[in-house]
Amino acid sequence: MNAEASAEQIRKAYERAMKAEIPFSIFTEDLFATGNDIDNRAAVIAKRGDELALVGMALRERKKLVDKILDGIKLHK
User: Coil, strand or helix: which one is 71?
Assistant: First the structure.
C-alpha cells in the first residue's frame, strides 16, 4: 500500500508505530544526501527520534494494525 502524507502525518505514524513496538523503516532527508548504507545509518543514529526530518516510512504488519498507524493518511491514486 502506498500513501501520501504531510510531514506532520508521517511524524504521527512514526510515533504510533513506535508505541505499537512494531518493526519499521524510516526515510529521512539526510538519507538523500549520503551515498551508502553506512553513512545512512550514521545519519539516523546521530539524531534523537524527535529530531529526525522524516520524509517516509515503510512497515509490514497485520492490516488492522497498519490501518491504525496510518489513520488519516490518503492512499496514492
Answer: coil
